[in-house]
Structure to design on (568 residues):
């Protein structure tokens, strides 16, 4: 995020109470724009990481309330990142929603074992549907 | 051959009582001559080969001399009185019969010639006149002719044997080659099949990314995230959205079909109450049904149905598919879901008051990529086709079928085997 965006976000934040902190780990820029626009409209604070290493760092430092994770990311892959999150006591119980266009059974199984809230196929949901799900998980 | 000839050449010496003196001498002399000619010939050939000269002429000469001497040798040997004569000669000639019948014939021909010349000479010398000499001559010539015939038969048999063996070998080789080709082709096919699955998998996943982008942005514009949009823009965008949704469904379909066909679709069976799955699905579709102005209701039976053994997620997808289709093909009216037990099967029916399906189209419905289904918008779920529904229901041990009347509506049925345990049986 650059300075302008940060400012814009802070302005919106000051107007209403934040709905939560969402860390979006995704490297496809149009997707990033889609989901972060929608999330910010709903008053979520959004941080974006474009690769696994960055994602891990932000997750530990920024302490988001929920992580939206794409599996196909550079440096550390999505699954590997998830394993590392679960291995660290700080991020062990961090809610994670996987947004991916891959639907390999072994990934779905493994992610279930690692306690993700949901495994969503990106192509099957609109951004607003995804945001609704996130709202649902953060309300609980 | 030399060895044979030499041994035979010296044999008469060992059995004096059978042979006349002059024959013995003649045989011995010829045997030695053959030995000498052969050895000289070999030396000569070796010498010429060393000097890199052409030996073909010497080989020819050697062959001719050999032929002549052998015939002579056998002729004199043939004059032995006794059984030895009859049996030995074919054996002596046999090596030649292996390859060259004309050679054997030539030898016997020469022997007949020698016999005739010998007899002619005796006649000329007035020694052979009389009944017995003529008989002896005729008998000897007859025997030689018989030998020639016998030799011919042997040769032919041998040739036939060789030919058959050759044919068998050829056939075996052909078979071996054909089998190898088949193995190669089979391997190639397996490779191609794996490639196809990989390709479908990769293509599907790759295609999803841009389709998601299109879907997301159009949805956001329609949500008003980019400001207010004129009604016509909205209309156009909705059509574009539907088109994209159709693509997404197709890709999902392809992926699922490819998975099922390559046996990669994972099924986790559980014993469940199907009513819960139906309720969940109906709840999911309520909003959509309402937006279409339709009534969607599940008539849950008062008595608990027997459990069924299915994969809960997959069976929900099947129900979603049927309910979704019902909604999309029904302009007004209702979609009712009912369930009941009958003949050991739990049957679920989804009936609508929709447009109905013509008999000729009904046949095509459960086939791969059935056109009817993909023609209509279907927003929810991963887009299983009826083809996959059928595969799954069959996998769970059940069946899927429909009844429909054009203009009146359609009812889809699917059945699953009921899990009846002892306690339930007691109740009955």
């Amino acid at each position: 995020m650059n300075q302008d965006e940060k400012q814009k976000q802070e302005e919106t934040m000051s107007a209403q109470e934040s709905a939560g902190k969402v860390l979006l780990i995704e490297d496809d820029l149009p997707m990033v724009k889609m989901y972060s626009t929608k999330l910010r409209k709903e008053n979520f604070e959004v941080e974006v990481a474009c690769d696994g290493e960055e994602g891990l760092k932000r997750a530990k430092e920024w302490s988001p309330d929920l992580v939206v994770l794409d599996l196909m990311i550079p440096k550390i892959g999505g699954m590997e990142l998830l394993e590392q999150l679960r291995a660290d006591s700080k991020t062990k119980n961090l809610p994670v929603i996987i947004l991916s266009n891959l639907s390999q059974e072994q990934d779905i199984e493994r992610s279930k074992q690692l306690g993700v809230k949901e495994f969503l196929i990106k192509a099957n949901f609109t951004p607003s549907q995804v945001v609704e799900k996130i709202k649902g998980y953060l309300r609980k | 051959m030399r060895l044979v000839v030499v041994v035979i050449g010296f044999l008469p010496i060992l059995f004096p009582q059978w042979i006349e003196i002059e024959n013995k001498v003649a045989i011995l002399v010829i045997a030695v001559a053959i030995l000498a000619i052969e050895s000289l010939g070999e030396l000569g050939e070796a010498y010429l080969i060393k000097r890199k000269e052409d030996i073909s002429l010497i080989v020819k000469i050697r062959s001719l001399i050999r032929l002549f001497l052998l015939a002579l040798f056998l002729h004199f040997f043939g004059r032995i009185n006794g059984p030895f004569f009859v049996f030995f000669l074919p054996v002596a000639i046999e090596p030649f019969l292996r390859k060259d019948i004309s050679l054997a014939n030539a030898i016997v021909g020469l022997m007949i010639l020698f016999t005739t010349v010998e007899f002619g000479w005796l006649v000329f010398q007035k020694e052979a006149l009389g009944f017995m000499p003529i008989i002896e001559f005729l008998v000897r010539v007859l025997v030689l002719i018989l030998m020639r015939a016998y030799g011919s038969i042997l040769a032919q048999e041998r040739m036939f044997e060789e030919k058959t063996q050759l044919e068998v070998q050829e056939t075996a080789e052909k078979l071996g080659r054909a089998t190898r080709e088949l193995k190669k082709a089979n391997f190639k096919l397996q490779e191609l099949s794996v490639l196809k699955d990989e390709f479908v998998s990769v293509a599907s996943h790759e295609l999803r990314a841009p389709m998601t982008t299109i879907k997301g942005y159009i949805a956001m514009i329609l949500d008003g995230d980019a400001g207010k949009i004129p009604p016509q823009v909205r209309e156009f965008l909705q059509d574009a959205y539907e088109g994209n949704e159709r693509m997404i469904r197709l890709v999902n379909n392809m992926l699922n079909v490819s998975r099922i066909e390559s046996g990669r679709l994972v099924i986790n069976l559980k014993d469940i109450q199907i009513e819960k799955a139906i309720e969940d699905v109906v709840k999911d579709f309520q909003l959509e049904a309402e937006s279409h102005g339709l009534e969607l209701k599940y008539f849950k039976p008062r008595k608990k149905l027997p459990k069924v053994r299915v994969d809960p997620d997959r069976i929900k997808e099947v129900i979603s598919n049927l309910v979704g289709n019902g909604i999309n093909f029904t302009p007004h009216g209702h979609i009712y879901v009912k369930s009941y037990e009958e003949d050991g099967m739990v049957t679920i029916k989804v009936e609508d008051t929709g447009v109905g399906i013509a008999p000729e189209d009904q046949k095509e419905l459960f086939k791969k990529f059935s056109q009817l289904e993909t023609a209509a918008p279907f927003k929810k779920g991963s887009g299983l086709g009826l083809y996959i529904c059928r595969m799954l229901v069959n996998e769970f041990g059940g069946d899927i079928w429909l009844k429909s009347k054009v203009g009146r509506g359609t009812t889809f049925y699917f059945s699953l085997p009921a899990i009846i345990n002892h306690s339930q049986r007691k109740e009955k």
Summary: Chain B touches chain A at residues 205, 208-209, 211-213, 215-217, 219-220, 223, 225, 248, 251-252, 255, 264-266, 381-382 (CB under 8 Å).
